[in-house]
## 1
Amino acid sequence: MEEEPMEEPNARIPKRPFWSGAVTIGLVNVPVKLYTMTFDKAFSFRFLHKQDGQPLKYQKVCVKDNKVVPWEDTVRGYEVSKNRFIMFQKEELDAARPQSSQNIRIDKFVDYLSIDPIYFERSYVLTPDKSNEAYSLLLGALQKTHKAGAGRIALRTKEYPVLLHAYKGALVLTTLRYAYEISDPNNFEELKRLKEPEKKELDLAVKIINDLSGEFDITEYEDTYEERIRKLIAKKLKGETIVAEKPVKEEAKELMAALQETLNQLKK
Amino acid sequence: MEKLTKVQFTNLNKILYPEAKVTKAQVIQHYIRMAPRMLDILKNRPAVLTRFPNGVGKEGFYEKDMPLGTPPWVETFKKYSETAEREINYVVCNDLDTLVWLGNLAALELHMTLSRIDAFEKPDLVVFDMDPEPPASTDDVVDVALMLKENLDGLGLESYVKTSGKRGLHILVPIVREYTFGQTREYVHQIGMHLAREAPIVISGFSRSKKPGTVYIDYLQNSHGRTMVCPYSLRATSQATVSMPLNWSEVKKGLKPEEFTLFNVAKSESNPWKGMLEVKQRLEKSVD
């Protein structure tokens, strides 16, 4: 049996845009498509049943009677205190959701390097959507000024603060975390009690840092665990792999088709 | 969507033929596809099942009585069995749902009686059950079957042939329902002995009295409550062979019964046994 070739570890180019709309700056509109740009992992594992090697699926099980609960019988609950919940209907939550909008609204321009990366969440590539001229104009202006547009975008369930900036000849949108999503280090007691370092020691430390200074290159860092697993997979592919059986639904579909044919024949 | 079957499928991915890699879904599908040709002949005949819930090669069992949990819509036939000394509830496979249900029970082999429930003591089929005893081969069975066919033709009797799904052949003669099993059994024995006189390789006898290098005609199959593997039934062989009805023209040297399997029999469009059940023949003219 032929095995599919392994995916390359490099992040892929997504087939479909994740979102499409327009960047709006005042009265100016630049229609764009938005593609996912970052990926958490190049590969992932699935859980299998140790005895027969078949894939396992997740089910929601009621803690009281251990019975499997179908999706349509679930609601969201907010745990107010241990084991005390407020129940929300889907409609109630939907009503509170932000209006999904087709715009990335830019409010102002800021010095890109002045923004601490701690706020950065996920990045998306923007491509022009029949707007080549406006797109390259905006890109050129950001490159020239080293500025980034700050604004917001409303995606399916949430509104995010965003930065629009130039990266390798493209407009890139990076969603940001809200202030409340980041803890303030000043809350740590140990940090409040820190003393100022002595000048002599500080000078020495600065010297060490300067000696070790260089250009940052992300490719110097390799995911050695990933690399080892990849080699293991290649090895196992040459030997035995466990082939997942067709899901029952698929098999039942074929049976249903056969049943339909036979029933038609029997009616004749 | 309209519900196509009353049967709740279970464990469809279970492998029932490990060597041939056949799943229960494929077994059920085989029976669904063969149903139009099987149901006519199975109609009103008690069925005996050979079940292999854990697949061929694992323990299987012969089941005369309806299985535990038989749904109420399955037809059954109650009959006192003298050998078992109790009443047996046979399954009667009269519709597609029952056939599908049997497949879902991993009843790989379906065996049927030679009589029907409305006249259980009067067979409508006479069977010549032939098996080679090594070193005799299927080719030897073919020789004997063709000899038998010639004899039956001479008696003016139409006959139908199928592979047993193993190495033998079953030759059937459809008859009027006027004879007892005692009479049909004797009839087969007489013809068997006639063939034995012509060809020393033939033995008309019990299936157990095995003699190397012979072809046995087991005339005792023509007995009350005895069953024959149903046409198009799967067999519990490693390669999922099928008991395959043939045209007489296909019965010749080189016939390989093991080539008829779950994988290819559904492709055969023709039904060599078409009209067999409408043929109702008398035996008298030949029994002198």
## 2
Amino acid sequence: MKWGVALNVRETLSETLRKAEVADKGGIDQVWITDFPALRHAPAVAAAVAERTESCRIGVGMMSPLLYSSTHIVQLMSTLIEHYGNRFDILLGPGDRYALARIGVPYSAKLAVEKTVDALREIKLGLSEAGHRSSVLLGAQGPVMINASLEADGVLLNYSDIEMIEWALDLVKSKIPDDFQLGVFPPTYVGECQDIVSNVAISISAAMVAVGLNKGVSEYFGIRDEIEAARLQLKKQGQLNMEIAKLLGNKILERFAFCGSEDQLIEYLSQIETRGFSFAVFGPPQGIRKNGVEILATAKSNT
Amino acid sequence: MSSSYSVSVGITTHMGVSATKWIADNADSLGARSIWIGEDIALGQETFVLTAATLLQTKQVRVGTGIIPVTVHNIATLARAGVTLDEIGPGRFAFGLGIGGIQDLEKFGMSVKKPVTELRKSVKTLKRLWAGETVESSSELFSIHDFSLELSNPLDVPVFLGVRGPQMLKLTGKIAEGAILSAPFDYLRFAIETVNDAAEEAGRNKDDVEKVVWVPTVPTFKGIKDKVAKRVVALVIGDMPDAVLEMLTVDKEKVDLIRKTVAASGPKEGAKFVDDELLDVFSISGSKEHMVDRFEELAAIGATEIVIGPPFSGDWREALVEIFAEVDARRNSQ
């Protein structure tokens, strides 16, 4: 099981570089440099991370094809590889509709799917034609994107719940190509976690993923009313806060995040590994925490 | 003669990694003031990654984009890239912006109805974001709502504008930290005066606005092929606004023919009509002594920095070394 950590969420560049070095030296396999709504530009940060690290793979993204053209994404990946070697992978996904709306990027469910799927094909082709061996991964939640991910080199599901993961897997099980990479990318907090709602950072991160869930999927899992209520509040208030997270409640938030001890993390990873998953990227707040990467490196060394 | 100007190197995203890496590796030791990176839209290396890599590879030189067209990037991406590049090379990054070349924009089906207004709004919005404000702003090309970079300290990213027309020059004098100018000598005199006058009208000191001159440099003493130089000059003529061409004492019919040919068939065909006179008007070419003479003439009319840029052909590495050495030798002999 490969371990990854998401950095460049709200940290300064120097903090991201420090954490990337800790991850690299601590045996974390992948460092993912998140892009918008992160406030620093992922490809430029990825260049700086490559300069400061030696062996970890560097993921760029999630990058939204609604914000960047396929040509631009191929170009930036090629430039990174030509300068720093074959260490880079890319994660594509439509991105957060509310954040994109704030910077004038039009979003509709149809447009998001169409553009992302077209970009996935174009970017895979473009990188392959350039002779680069980067993995092109798709971030997915709902059935359309999960099915679309079969054209990618792998998928990252951004929920943690085993029931939901099994459901996602059932959608594509018979069609999964050889060498397809199955991964999860849930908000993560490794540490004392009796009650998720009492931890603001993980609650907000989990709520952010939850409100983006497709209506059909939320209906299927019987959580549609709570998610719709939270989404309505988000629309009214403009940004996620604990009031909205509390509307979702512990049970729903837990489906979208990992919050638990080191032992529980290892147990969780073993559960998903038996289901065919080969990597986990630990999303915020773990990488934002001052010692979050050290905690992961210690946990990994104990496996 | 003059030590009042700096010499820099200009590269473009269309250049190969080995060439841009060599320049980054050697810029400090050559004594370059800056490395300016021009974005050839959708061609070659990605502009922000190349800029980051160049900053990471150098220790002393300023690294600037020269220019990035605001027409092809989301304004939030420009703002975020500015923050990131300033953090990668604290105090060494300069953000060169512009609307983009006429040929490029046409090729990508883009047009801007009010380019001066667009550039003004873009710069104002970027500066407000870097100052730490939450911004609500829109223009012909962008709209942002309730967007902030959540900076704990305001950033002071110097903005340089790649401009040619009179209104753009005035805008630069009013709002930018520098102008990146690319035009024939006769026009450059007018351009520098216009920028200076606009700066003073806006209550600024004209010396607070740097005047960076980037025209094609063709060091024929190191084996550069004539046809390469002519192709670059054809491209420059093809992109030259009417306002600039009207001020020149060149054969207008020939220039028109070149522009039409470049528009219809590209710079390679246009190059067939570029003669030695036009080569001299639109580029700095010849021996290193002659080239440095031209640098000094430019400094005398107010250029603060001269960029040695593409075409990089022939033994261009050695040509760069010799030109910088010539500049140094003249300074030391003063």
